[in-house]
Amino acid sequence: MRNPLRRLEKLLKRERDELLVGNIQGALALLDEKERLVRDLENSQPEGTELQKIQTEAARNLDLIKAAWNGITAARSRIEVAQSTPSLRTYGADGHSSEVSGRKNGLERRA
Question: Is the full-model pTM beyond 0.70?
Answer without folding.
Answer: no
